Amino acid sequence: MDLSGSIEAAAPAQLRPTRVRYCIIALIFIITSLNYADRSTFSIAGASASAELGLDAVQTGFILSAFAWAYSLAQIPGGALLDRFGTRPIYIAAIGTWSFFTVLQGFAGFILGATVVTQLFLLRFLVGLCEAPSFPGNARIVAAWFPARERGTASAIFNSAQYFSLVAFAPLMGWVVHEWGWRAVFFVMGGLGLMAMGAFAAFIREPVRHKWANRAEIDLIREGGGLVEPVSRTEAREPTFTWNNIRQLLTSRMMIGVYLGQYCINVLTYFFVTWFPIYLVKDRGFNILEAGFVAALPALCGFVGGVAGGVMSDMLLARTGSITTARKAPLLAGMLLASLIMVAARVESQVGVVLLMSLAFFGKGVASLGWAVMSDVAPRKLAGLAGGVFNTFGNAAGIVTPIVVGILVAQAGSFDTALIFVGAHCLLTIVAYFVVVQKLERLELAA
């Protein structure tokens, strides 16, 4: 009796899938948290740095905006680099270079040949340039490592790092500035980034090339629609970045409304990432150590709000079957709550201000369904290009917000008008989705 065939047939059934993909997303979550922390280093160090270097509010605003100039402009080119050379080498280079330029910011004022404002603007610009491939890279890693039924949760995990980052790193950076001065925060965060680069290089691979992933896990991912094999560089691809495709994206009323809405939501995001700790110190009387810890509370509320908004949207979709209702209802509730940031201009109590800011950031989290909307409406053949344009518009708020807030603070001598500016964009988001967008449905391209 030949038992070999029976043994071979039974072996695959006894092989349990490994769970390497969970370790992958955990590492991506940590790296993305560092990514966001490096964006906000000057926000934490800004009050001390401005005093030492003699920077006024307008100069500080331009420095804070530098990251977003590069990050916005490099979104589509960053995605193209990932497509051309693969996720792993581009992502490794991105982490290493943005961490290096973070470290260099600690030497601002000592670099010859340029003013300190120019030095800091250029270095933060380079950090933004190098971070551009990170989110498209995260999306590609999730597409490779997760079957379709797990992909939404995995995407939510790495996206939630923007909130966790402030919870974890704002107190750390505030403590570092308090103990060792503002320059030390750049050395510490840049050093952590270089360590993260080493961890990424050692652990991240395509599923079929990862020595820890067994055949059962790879088959599970593949059968669920995961892209477990790397794309051949010589494989012919139909070009998506054409002027005709761009024209169709930019002339669709629905897409214009979605892009405008994301820009307005990100005005609130970039206020928290850039000016909020400085606001706590200059307008509300917190010291830098207290500001680092206080800034973590709204971020934690944003994290909770982000989860709540996703759950609410999924429940509404299951109950109504309407994408429009499921996406717009949480957005309306969240943005109305976020607009309470304007009330903070009339509140004297430190506790009252922190509570209002926490409610505002919770509302912003509830309303942060932009990437879910894009998955619903982006043309099937242009998902990457539509997402790149979407992220470009959204991060343009990082250019405008720090500069405008700096000008408003310089003119008024306080943050009162700046808070009204930010809150008004919450209301404009509602206009974008309920007046401009109207019905949400997948955009069909003309031939």
From TrEMBL:
The keyword Cell cycle does not apply. GO terms for cellular component: plasma membrane. Residues 24-441 form the Major facilitator superfamily (MFS) profile domain. It is found in: Cell membrane. The chain crosses the membrane at residues 20-37, 57-78, 90-111, 117-135, 156-178, 184-204, 256-281, 293-317, 329-347, 353-373, 385-412, 418-437. GO terms for molecular function: transmembrane transporter activity. It is a multi-pass membrane protein. Its main location: membrane. Keywords: Cell membrane, Membrane, Transmembrane, Transmembrane helix. SUPFAM superfamilies: MFS general substrate transporter. This is Glucarate transporter. It comes from Novosphingobium guangzhouense. The lineage of its organism: Bacteria, Pseudomonadati, Pseudomonadota, Alphaproteobacteria, Sphingomonadales.
